[in-house]
Amino acid sequence: MRLAVIADIHGNVAALQAALADIAARGADATICLGDIASGQCWPRETVEMLQDSGIPSIRGNHDRWISEHDPATMGKQDRLAYDELTASQRDWLMGLPELLTPAPGVLACHGTPSSDMQNLIEEVIAERLRPAPMAVLRERLGDEGMAARVVLCGHSHRTGMVQVPGGPLVVNPGSLGLPGFRISREPAHRQEAGTPHARYAVLDLDAARVGVELVAIGYDWDAAARRAEEVGANAAWPHVIRTGLLPESA
Description:
alpha/beta, 8 helices, about 30% helix
């Protein structure tokens, strides 16, 4: 089985459309989405509609949850745009998505960790940057369910990476499909930059004796996505990071 893994679309339907076409061209048997689907300063409604129409099994990310749980008056721009553009039934659909999925035997999929949609799995914050987490920390975050799996799929950090846990699973983060960088001001404050604007996802060969992984980065019309962010009144960092994969201060 060839399983495509997408995560952290953040309302970038242009990136999603390009990725789904590329996934079909690569002959993947199935696709799974690891959450943070709509919240973003581009096309939240169109992104939800495309994902719903595709029938791709999806996990609820923290931003998918926040759109329903938080008071709109207190939301940041990306969540508020999604709240305003989505219908009540679309918000309910996001809220009703599962926290965990098993897309294939021995494969456990989550947004952050198996027990938290807010915790990165394979990274920790050091000097406001994401760095690889120590193996003991990774094992603790995986818990019994994660350690018993053959493969664990995670998103949330937007940072492409994979770790083979000795005596445990192969952990794969495909990176962000639609938002290649961000800055978090809440504690622990940190930033993440992919360094290029490509849409990222992964394809796993689960039939191999040892799981094969392709970490994919594809081109798409990121200028159109950045222009859309400008049209909806996004803060300056949002279109810049879509165009470049870098925050303005890094460029």
